Amino acid sequence: MRVVSLFSGAGGLDLGFRMAGHDIVWANDLYEDAVHTYQKNLGNHIVFEDIHNISAEHIPDCDIVIGGFPCQGFSVANMNRNASDERNALYKQLIRVVKAKRPKFFLAENVKGITSLEKGKVFDMIMHDFAKMGYKVDYQVLNAANYGVPQTRQRVFIVGVFENIEWNFTFPKPTHCKDGTHGCPKWISVSEALSDLPDPDAENDVLNHTYSKYKLNINGYIGHRLLDPDKPAPTVTGRGDNRGGVVVLPHPNGRRRMSCRELASIQSFPIDYEFEGNNSSIYRQIANAVPPLLGYAVAKEFNKFSEDKEC
After folding, report:
1. How confident is the model at residue 205 (pLDDT cuts 50, 70, 90)?
2. Is residue 202 part of a domain?
3. pLDDT of 174-203, one tens digit each?
4. 282 in a structural domain
5. What is this structure's pTM?
6. What's the pLDDT score for residue 279?
7. In terms of residue numbers, what domain contains 6?
8. DSSP 85
9. Is residue 242's pLDDT more than 70?
10. Which helix (H) or strand (E) holds 162?
11. How distant, in Å, are the alpha carbons of 58, 278, 284 from that of 34?
């Protein structure tokens, strides 16, 4: 399918769609370092511009519009989250583009916390806004660990199928399970994910294999909790800013923070995916991304559609 991607970031979701065989024809983001990362790895079809300033007529026709719209206003990590947060309205830009381009499908991704904002009223509003454009809308919360990502990251995926299409999207079945007792492999652990990476303090030629020297103080707070090497990592977060205050998961050895490459591995980015910017910027790009393997699992389900399903 021809894919238009909004809020593309460093390209995690787009990479998943490309892995599933789809063609990303246009992408957009306002984070300059992330745009440079995207260009280096996925191509120059990404536009560095505020989506508010882009007319829909300058966006190509497509089969599907995808977008992990910014989630800071919705996240349970944001204690001040509320319906008036201006970042919460960015999903309306996704709606604007979908309404103008009328693709067969759309896919929206966000944090699990969006479903409970204002006791669910905001999520009901969002689902209603999507449905009234003429789409059959469904959603599901997916745990990245269930799809081969070494991280228990839970995200909600909202899928819309245009009402004149006699086909229903089915969310992907897990390929991995917590204990490996249901006929599928066990969740991938942190130690497995990092096993092939050398010590970043030793001489090596691994891309982006440097880490923050910000003091690690194990005290139970986010970014300061010991990891169990035999389990997937907790959710990689993008809290902080580009001036060095980004909260980063500690390495399982408890002596330092993960390197950018190690964190990228926890997010399931391939080892040759190169990130642009300083360490703090790279950490944020990685944390804000959809894990490519999770994106791939969802994108593959669209391969089951055939054109004869249209009325």
Report:
1. very high
2. no
3. 999 999 887 899 999 999 999 999 999 999
4. no
5. 0.92
6. 92
7. 2-175+292-309
8. -
9. no
10. strand 154-162
11. 21, 11, 9
Burial label, 236 (beta-carbon count in 10 A; 0-12, 13-18, 19+): buried
Sheet harboring 46-48: ordered strands across? 46-48, 23-29, 2-6, 64-67, 105-111, 154-162, 135-143
Identify whether 117 is part of a domain: yes
Is pLDDT of 310 > 70? no
Classify 46 as helix, strand or coil. Answer: strand
135: CATH = 3.40.50.150
**If DSSP codes are grouped into helix, strand and coil, which group holds residue 259?**
strand
Contact present, 267 and 253 (Cβ < 8 Å) = no
Residues tagged active-site: 71
Structure tokens given for 172: 């992907």
Tell how many helices (H) and how many strands (E) occur in the chain.
Answer: 8, 7
Structure token pair of residue 5: 């991607």
CB 146 within 8 A of CB 298: no
Helix (H) or strand (E) holding 136: strand 135-143
Q: Give the span between the Cα atoms of 156 and 141, in whole angstroms.
A: 4
